[in-house]
Design brief:
Glycoside hydrolase family 2 protein, Glyco_hydro_2, mainly beta, TIM Barrel, hydrolase, 8-stranded parallel β-barrel, glycosidase, disordered N terminus, binds beta-D-galactopyranose, 47 strands, Immunoglobulin-like, signal, Jelly Rolls
C-alpha cells in the first residue's frame, strides 16, 4: 500500500516535471535578493579591495585572487541589501562650492569624494547541473554607472551607461551545481547629467534562461499594428539566433491573445533552418478583427506570442504586449491620437522620488503616473535618459503617452548603441509616441556636425522603428540650422517667442514644446524666503529662460498647429537648486513636490487639463501674527465665475478667465475663507479655514493590501489634525515611525526642498518632520507572511496606526 502511494506520487511528480519542461521554455527570474554591498575607493586600491593592484585581473582570464572579485572573497562584513539600491541617497548632504555637487543635490559623490563613489556588489547563487545545456543571461535594467561585471572571477563585460538596460550571456562561466558569484563594480566618479543621478544597481536585475535556439534578448520580437477600419493588421517581426554547436531546423509562428490570454488570431508556420552562430529575421502579418484601440482612458493591451517549435516541442516562446492606436503629427492641425485631435498636456520628469532616490519600487512608478493622470497629464517625457521598463509598463497599462529620450546626441559607437538598445527595448510599448534623440546640445545643435549626427540618429530610429518619428529638445528659438534641419518634429525648449516666426518660415514641420514652463514654487510657502531658499507657491517665479505655467499654456491654446508640450517638471527632483543654492538641495520646478504633494500650480493645470470640477484657494488660512495685513489669494478653477467670502462677508464675484486664474487681496482675519463658484449652472464650493494647533497624527496609506513578494510597496502620507479633525496645513512636528511585521521602511520624505533630514534613517529609528503639514513614508514588503503595522507618533500628539493585510 505504502509503495503504491509512493509510486503514484513519483508518477505525478514525473509527469508534472515533464509538463513543466514542455511549457517552461524560457525563464525570467528576478535577481534582486541576496546581494552584499560595500563602498570601495576610486583612487586608493587599498580601500578598493585591491582592485587594480597587480592582480592580473585583465591580464589572465579568470584571475581574480586577492580582490573582491574572487569567489572565496570574504564578504561577511558587507551590508545585506535588496535591489533596487541607490547608495547615494543615504549619504549626508554636504556643502561644497562646486557646480557638479550643486547640480547633483549636494551629495558627496563624484571625483571630489573618491571614498563614496565606487560601489561593489556581490551575489552568490546556484544553478543545478540538470540545467546545463541551456543558455543563461544576466540582465541589469540600470546601474549607475560605468560598471564592470564578473562571474566566478571571469570578466563578462562593462556597461558605460547609467541608464540603459544591458544583458550579458554568462553561460560559459557557470559552475553547475556549485556556488557562483556575480560581482559588480559601479563607478560614479563621473556624472552623466546635471541633476541627481544616484549610484549603484538602482533598477531590477534578472536571470534569464532559454534554449540555444532562441528569440534574441533585446529586439527578439516587435509587434505593431496598422489600423484598417475596424480591424488591425498586426505585424510581428521576430529575430532568432542559433547559439548551439550545430545547425538547427524548427518552425516559428505567432498568435495574438486578448489581455486575458484568449487566443484571437494565429499566424502562419514559418520554417527555420539556421546555421551555427547565425541569426535571422522573420515577419508575419496577422489580421485582428474588430480591434480594441489603446487609448488614454481605455489602455487596452493585446499580447503577441511568438513560438519556436522543434520536433513537436516548444523550445522558446516570448510574449509581447502591444496596443492598437494611431499617432498623427500634422504641421497645421497638431497631434491626434486615434484620429482625435488633442493637445499634449505633458510633463518632463526625472526619475528620483522622496525617500528612495533613484531606486523606486515598481509600485511607486504606478503611484506617480496615477498622480499625474489625476492632474490631467496625458504625456510623460522621460528626461534626459531612458526610463526603467516598469515606468513604461505603468504608462502602457494606465494610459499615458511617453516621449522616450536617449541620454545624449552623439552618433559615435557608444551613443549610437545606447539609442539602438533603447529603441529595441521600448518599441513595443504602446505608450511610446515619440522618440527624442537628445536635449539642448548647445555646443553643436546649430552646426553641421549636429546636423550630421542628428541625421544618423533619425535614420537609425526609422530603420529600427518605422512606426514612429523623432524629435529633439532644442533651446534654439527661431533658428533652423543644424539639428533642426533634419528633425521630423521640431522641439522647442522654452524660447516660445520664436514660435510664430519659426512656424511661418517652416510651415511643413510639426512643432512640439519639448520643454516649457520651469516655474519655481515651494509647496505651502507663500512668501519669498532667501535664507531658507523658498519661492512663493503661486505661479509667479521662473528663471530667465522660462515662463509661468499660464503663459505657455495660453500660447499653446491659441495656436492650433502647436502640438502642446512638456512642462518642466511633474515632480520636484534632487539637484538643480534654482533660483537659490545651498541650503536648497532640491529643484523647485515640480508641479508636485518630491513626495507628489500638489503645489498651487497643480490646480491651474488640473482646472484646464481635466473636466473635473476644480475650485482651489491658495494660500491656507493660518496666518497668526498677520492680522489686518494684506494676503494675496489665488483661486484656480474651471468654473464660470467665483465669489470669495471671508467669514461670510463677500469680497466680490469675478468671472473666471479661460486658461487663467483669479486674485483677490484680502486683509487677514482668522476664520473661514470660502469660494462659491458656478459652473454651467451648478454650484461648487471650497474653503480654507484657520485651524487650531495639531493634536493628532493621521496616516493615509495608498492601499491596505500588500503582497508578500518582497517587491510590493505602499506609500503612506502623513498629516496632522487639530481638535476639530481639520488638517493643519502649517504643522511642522517631527513624526517617528515604527513598523512591525514582514515589511520594511525604505525611505521618508516631506517635500521640503531645503530639508537636510535623512531620507534613509540608517540607525533604524525612522522619523521625518512634517513640512507644510505633510510627510511621507515608503514601505516595501518582505517575502515572509504576516501582519504589518505602521505606527506614527510624536510627543504631544495622539498616535495613529495602520495595519496592512
Ligand atoms: C533646461 C534643461 C533641463 C533643466 C531645465 C531647468 O534647459 O533641459 O534639464 O535644466 O532647463 O529649467
Amino acid at each position: 500500500m505504502k509503495i503504491f502511494k509512493i509510486a503514484i506520487i513519483l508518477c505525478l511528480l514525473g509527469s508534472s516535471t515533464l509538463f513543466a519542461q514542455a511549457i517552461k521554455t524560457r525563464t525570467h527570474t528576478n535577481f534582486d535578493e541576496g546581494w552584499k554591498f560595500a563602498l570601495g575607493h576610486a583612487t586608493d586600491y587599498t580601500r578598493d579591495f585591491n582592485y587594480g593592484n597587480g592582480n592580473n585581473l585583465f591580464a589572465k582570464s579568470g584571475e581574480s585572487a586577492g580582490t573582491a572579485i574572487a569567489i572565496d572573497f570574504n564578504d561577511k562584513q558587507w551590508t545585506n541589501i535588496r535591489l533596487p539600491h541607490d547608495w547615494v541617497v543615504g549619504l549626508p548632504f554636504r556643502y561644497v562650492k562646486n557646480d557638479d555637487i550643486d547640480s547633483h543635490g549636494y551629495k558627496p559623490v563624484g571625483m571630489l569624494f573618491p571614498e563614496n563613489s565606487i560601489g561593489w556588489y556581490r551575489k552568490s547563487f546556484e544553478i543545478a547541473s540538470v540545467d546545463s545545456g541551456k543558455r543563461f543571461e544576466i540582465q541589469f535594467d540600470g546601474i549607475y554607472r560605468d560598471s564592470k561585471i564578473w562571474l566566478n572571477g571571469y570578466y563578462i563585460g562593462g556597461h558605460f551607461s547609467g541608464y540603459n538596460s544591458v544583458t550579458f550571456d554568462i553561460t560559459d562561466f557557470i559552475r553547475f551545481g556549485k556556488k557562483n558569484v556575480l560581482v559588480v563594480r559601479a563607478d560614479a566618479t563621473e556624472f552623466e547629467g546635471w541633476f541627481y543621478e544616484g549610484g549603484g544597481i538602482y533598477r531590477h536585475a534578472w536571470l534569464n534562461t532559454y534554449d540555444n535556439l532562441h528569440f534574441k534578448s533585446n529586439g527578439g520580437a516587435f509587434a505593431h499594428a496598422a489600423v484598417e477600419d475596424k480591424d488591425a493588421r498586426v505585424t510581428i517581426e521576430t529575430n532568432i539566433e542559433n547559439r548551439g554547436i550545430k545547425g538547427a531546423t524548427a518552425t516559428v509562428y505567432n498568435y495574438i491573445t486578448d489581455r486575458n490570454g484568449k487566443v484571437l488570431a494565429k499566424g502562419k508556420e514559418m520554417p527555420l533552418d539556421l546555421a551555427v552562430r547565425k541569426d535571422v529575421k522573420l515577419s508575419d502579418d496577422i489580421l485582428l478583427r474588430n480591434a480594441h484601440s489603446w487609448d488614454l482612458n481605455d489602455p487596452y493591451l493585446y499580447k503577441a506570442v511568438s513560438v519556436i517549435k522543434q520536433n513537436g516541442r516548444t523550445i522558446d516562446s516570448v510574449q509581447t504586449r502591444f496596443g492598437v492606436r494611431t499617432f498623427t503629427f500634422d504641421s497645421k492641425t497638431g497631434f491626434a491620437l486615434n484620429g482625435r485631435k488633442m493637445k499634449i498636456q505633458g510633463v518632463s520628469c526625472h526619475q528620483d522620488h522622496a525617500g528612495v532616490g533613484s531606486a523606486l519600487p515598481d509600485e511607486l512608478q504606478y503611484y506617480r503616473i496615477k498622480l499625474l493622470k489625476e492632474m490631467g497629464v496625458n504625456a510623460y517625457r522621460a528626461t534626459h535618459n531612458p526610463p526603467t521598463p516598469e515606468l513604461l509598463d505603468a504608462c502602457d497599462s494606465l494610459g499615458m503617452l511617453v516621449m522616450d529620450e536617449t541620454r545624449l546626441l552623439n552618433s559615435g559607437k557608444e551613443y549610437e548603441d545606447q539609442f539602438r538598445d533603447l529603441i529595441l527595448r521600448d518599441r513595443n510599448d504602446a505608450s511610446v509616441f515619440l522618440w527624442s534623440i537628445g536635449n539642448e546640445e548647445y555646443v553643436m545643435q546649430h552646426t553641421d556636425i549636429g546636423k550630421r549626427i542628428a541625421q544618423n540618429q533619425v535614420l537609425l530610429q526609422q530603420e529600427l522603428d518605422p512606426t514612429r518619428i523623432s524629435t529633439y529638445a532644442a533651446n534654439m528659438g527661431n533658428y533652423f540650422k543644424g539639428v533642426n534641419e533634419v528633425i521630423p518634429v521640431r522641439g522647442f525648449n522654452y524660447n516660445l517667442g520664436g514660435l510664430d516666426g519659426y512656424h511661418a518660415a517652416h510651415p511643413d514641420q510639426p512643432i512640439i514644446g519639448t520643454e516649457v514652463a520651469s516655474t519655481v514654487t515651494t509647496r505651502s510657502i507663500f512668501t519669498k524666503d532667501t535664507v531658507r531658499a523658498y519661492v512663493p507657491d503661486y505661479d509667479l517665479t521662473f528663471p530667465s529662460w522660462a515662463s509661468t505655467a499660464e503663459t505657455w499654456w495660453k500660447i499653446t491654446q491659441d495656436r492650433p498647429w502647436f502640438i502642446g508640450g512638456f512642462a518642466w517638471t511633474g515632480f520636484d527632483y534632487r539637484g538643480e537648486p534654482t533660483p537659490y543654492r545651498w541650503p536648497n538641495v532640491n529643484s523647485h520646478f515640480g508641479i508636485m513636490d518630491m513626495c507628489g504633494f500638489p503645489k498651487t500650480v497643480y490646480y491651474y493645470y488640473q482646472a484646464w487639463w481635466t473636466d473635473k470640477d476644480v475650485l482651489h484657494i491658495a494660500p491656507h488660512w493660518n496666518w497668526k501674527g498677520k492680522e489686518g495685513q494684506p494676503i494675496e489669494v489665488w483661486v484656480n478653477s474651471n468654473a464660470d465665475d467665483v465669489e470669495l467670502k471671508l467669514n461670510g462677508k463677500s469680497l466680490g464675484k469675478k468671472d473666471m478667465p479661460r486658461n487663467g486664474h483669479l486674485v483677490w487681496t484680502v486683509n487677514y482675519q482668522p476664520g473661514v475663507l470660502s469660494a462659491i463658484a458656478h459652473k454651467k449652472g451648478r454650484v461648487i464650493k471650497a474653503k480654507v479655514e484657520t485651524t487650531l494647533s495639531p493634536v493628532s497624527i493621521k496616516l493615509i496609506p495608498s492601499k491596505i493590501k500588500l503582497m508578500h513578494d518582497g517587491q510590493d510597496a505602499v506609500i503612506v502620507n502623513v498629516i496632522a489634525l487639530d481638535a476639530k479633525g481639520r488638517e493643519v496645513p502649517d504643522a511642522a512636528n517631527m513624526i517617528q515611525f515604527d513598523l512591525q511585521g514582514s515589511a520594511e521602511i525604505i525611505g521618508v520624505g516631506n517635500g521640503d526642498p531645503s530639508s537636510h533630514e535623512a531620507d534613509k534613517c540608517s540607525d533604524g529609528q525612522w522619523q521625518r518632520s512634517l513640512f507644510g503639514g505633510k510627510a511621507q513614508v515608503i514601505i516595501r514588503s518582505l517575502k515572509s507572511n504576516g501582519k504589518i503595522t505602521l505606527k506614527g507618533f510624536s510627543s504631544g500628539l495622539k498616535a495613529d496606526e495602520v495595519t496592512f493585510q
